[in-house]
Predict the 3D structure of the following.
Amino acid sequence: MMMLLLIVLQTLLLGVASQVYECPSSWVPSEGRCYLFVFDPMEVYEQAKQRCQRDGADLLSIETFSENTFITSYLRNVDQLRGEWYTSGERDTTTGVSGMFLWRSTGQSIPEELNFWITPNEKLKAGRNIVYRGQSTGQYSWAIVSDTSTKRPFICEISQSEVYRIFQDDRGFDYGLDIKDPNLIPRGPKWRVEAKDTIIIGESSLVYLECDADGYPVPTFTWTRNNSQDVVTPALNTRYTITNGRLTIQNPREVADAGVYQCSAMNSIGSILGSPVRLSFANLGEFSNVVSAPVTPKEYQGAAIDCPTINSGYARAIRYQWLKFPNQFLRPELNTYQFISYNGKLYFSEVTRVDEGTYFCVATLTAPSGDLNYVGSSQMPSRTSKGIVLSVLGQGAGDISPVIQNGFISVYPAQPQKGETIHLECFAYGTSPLIYSWTTPVPQDERYSFSLNNRVLTIQNVTMEDSGTYSCKAENKRLQASDSKSYTLLVEAKPYFVLGLNDQHLDVGTKQLTWRCEARGLPYPVYVWYKNGKLLVNASNGDISVYKNTLIIRNVDKARDEGVYQCSATNTYGTAMTSGQLQVLSIKPNFFKNPMEPMIIGAEGGNITILCQPEAAPFPIYTWKLNGNVLNTPEDTSARVRKLKNGNLVISMMTRSDEGTYSCRVENSLGFAEGSTFLSVQASTKIFQAPANTYVLVNETAFLYCKASYNQAVLDLIYEWRFNGRVIDFETDRFYARGTPPDNTGGLYIRRTQYDHEGQYTCVARTQVDFDEAQAQLIVNGPPGEPAGVYSVDLLQGLSINATDVVLRWTDPLQIHGGNIESYIIDGMTNYTNKWIILAAYVAQADTIIQGQTDSQKRQFIIRFLKPGSAYKFRVRAVNRYGVGVPSAETKWRTINGAKPVRIPDNVGGGGGSVGTLRITWTPLPPEDQNGYGIGYRIRWRKQAEALRNPQTKWDEIVINGDVGEHSQTIGRDNFYLPYQVEVIPRNMYGEGPPGRNDSVYSAEDMPIAIPIGVYVDNFNESALIVTWDPIPDTREIMRGKLAGFKVIYWRENETESRGRQAIFYGNMEQALIIGLMPNSWYYASVLVFNHAGNGLKSLSYKQKTDKSAPKLYPTEVYVSPYGPNSVKVVFRGVITRVHEEQLLGYKLRYWKDSDDIRNAEDVDVERQNDGIIYGLQSDTLYHLRVLAYSLGGDGAKSSPTVLFTLGGQVRYDPTVSDVQYLTSDNSGGPSIWTSTSAIFSTLSLLLLCLTLL
């Protein structure tokens, strides 16, 4: 039978030192100790340990033969599954001796005589933790396990003298004190901020080390240096300043200030020490003046150049770069055959003549990673070495297989520490391209990244769990050669606590306190205990016992033992400290903070616990009364009315007769106190509309009903919902919402339902006194889950497949979500893309049956015509009546054998380029269409004219290697702008593919020899000139290509031609308009023709003057009146021109429809008249009108505002645009008209117009 973690506590009195402590309920006593066997829930090792420590206990340790006999006997009786049970036994890695173990809970080594191993060689097996393992014979023995992430049952253990820690209420420093302000509660110092190791990079004007502690009275702080009692104060050196806990050092110097510093905090309660921290200096030395010997590798072989030695106070702070003479920094991320190691060494996977030269190593101080504090100048110091000559010798071997060099895999920093960023480097000599890949001992998360062509694996914030064997592989796929190496990484760590000290508030007379701390670290840490900053050692009378990480205080004494305790853990990387205060309490019972409620309410047939929670120390004796009469409160759990060990009173199966006044009297050696409450017993609560089993589609909304009856006159009702036993939090879980009143009160909405919402829902109707509950199942239907076990298989007997086909197998999803699977979608991704594409859509289930397969859940399908030379990953999605399910996990990479290209290159063309060349372009084949390594192209060309005369004309050709899309071929300057036939044929290591062809690619143009003649410049208006010239034949002989356009160069009379501007006009033309000129000004202009190769020669320049300005004034007093059925008369006041303006030539009436804009306006030229007629107008149309004067200088300013008019009918108009004047018909009998020249309104009764306002 499984035992739950819920511990029902039995009677346990802790009054005075002479009292006997009993094990709580569910704990099993034996020889002065209590044991808890936890079947459910099972936990991983660390969680199991924390679960025990939460009650002040720890995982089991076996110290005697009789204890082992008790444990094995108990397990034989209760564990029918014969499982594995966690203990605190661990392998002792501090001794260096194989087969040594210790009990982590006590720190004691396991002696050889305690030999309860399942086999003699069991302790020599790999693994770390000791478990009790059951056997089919019923025996239990010790066994070793390595997987502590597996959930197992476990055994907790505690001394009977300390079981008070299991049930004792959480106490704080305010226990027994009547102080309202928490800041004024007396307490010893506790660190809020601790100083960190600090490194000064280069130089700094100041540095500070800071600590800060909480406590009352407010703590004072002291700094010491180099493990001495010498206190650091301004009196010691005026450069030192201490403000609260901050130590500031002005102008720090290595000789005077480097060392180990420690902060301590003190008040009247006690004192604590801070973790020692180191202040270091990192200065950059100088490179040697001795010139390094030249490096002389053979061509096409690997090479390495050592960076000369340079000193620094902190080697991890140096970063290296290399410079090639004269001023070219190396970029290994771009040139993948180069590599700069973190040790400063420069590597070449293969060298050529291009790499010859003089190289300089550049060293710079930087702030490395890690949990350290760095200060320094903003400009970090840098040094450059003497030049090192790299001279490449004669021809070496051709192709060289990859060889990973000695010293790799290399790790930086060389000894990684927890929290640092580390780099694992891998580098090989060999012919490019080299492809690097890694395998890691743990799954890669977001902390893992790769750089420099995968040659560097970076792990940020490295942990001890990252330790293990890492492997690197360097491969040349073209040569089908590779090399690999492995490295076992060991991450060490400065100690850090996984179990710190908690404050202890003990009753006076407590017999024993066992205090444990536990730290992780590598090397394994050494523990030291302190009290009030002083070293704590064993007492001669045995009352104080210190052993490793365990402190035992027996016969706790207030005067002797109160204070602040610290546990420190130290290894070669530093010290970590944790602190806790011990307080011994002596308090007369009182109900000041926790008075009993005046009245509580219970329900008939229900249970109730009446709380009695005084503050008292020592633990008091509880006496209960009902209506003044002492109750018989046995400790028997079967009693209907019983008292718990914490003093509370439990009443089961309540009746009306239990109603009354209950008094709780508490008494200890210091006095007594009494509280009371009235118990009212009410009728019970019942659910009358229970939730029903419900089906819902995924992403739809489901609703579950729930309504209950209760005593509304006295009680309040709330509804609580649980999902699979877990209470639903409506504030944080956006998928759930309560039902809305009045009809749906109490109900539950599940919105956008997901598959993980499927399960049991429980409605709990709860009042102050009782509750009722009802359950229902929610079933979520939708697309199926993911198929499992997708993998590709090799050739199978009876299957006909090609080299580009893959047989894929998978298992049907476990969850079909209410709909049978009908088909499958198979997706694929190549190693050249990061995008999934559909390879086979809606494959019928019948087409995936495996012939002769007895497992009907197994499926198979052949994916055909995959791309040769590509590696594929596959995934499968199942389809049912509700839609397409989620994809399966992706398969491993499957490489398709290479083949020659089959795709024709796209967009074969060209043209342009330098004179005397034929430029041929095409779209390079995408990587997945290259079908293998060694992509290149064979380019062929011949003159079109010769090929048309003789189809057998020989092709010229060249082979271009690489993933390129352009080639320029020299053909001679005389072959300018001739059409060529070209072919582009893709090729790889397996052969050539089909050609892409273009029969009309022109060679590059030459510079035109044409010069424009017959150039004439005429004035156009005040700001423009028009330039004309004779036509130029667009022939190959004259243009030496294709005429692209003309350029007009122009400049003012008082300027030089060199400062002239040009206007460009594309296309073949005979004139051009030059605009943006100054009025009444002389300009020079010349013309040249250009093609795509460049400009021709300029024509002679010609001079012309622009007109004076157009009229600046605009006509005013514009009036419109009816004239005829389709015409109006316009009258206006004209303008006069001034001396800087051209002579007036006339006026234009410019009008346009309201539905158009002014760019589509029409003009009526009235010459020099001050009126004119506009004919051809339409009714039901709104017109705009503006009047302007014109001259040789161009059109003048237009009248303003715009006049709006209509011949009548119905028009739509927005009156917010302008004011409107309405005019009736004139004496001539013409149509009615209105205009917008003013805001005068008149009667509309005579209008033949219906106006609709928007």
Summary: Residues 1-20, 1217-1233, 1235-1254 have pLDDT under 50 and may be disordered. The radius of gyration is 48 Å. The longest strand covers residues 574-585.
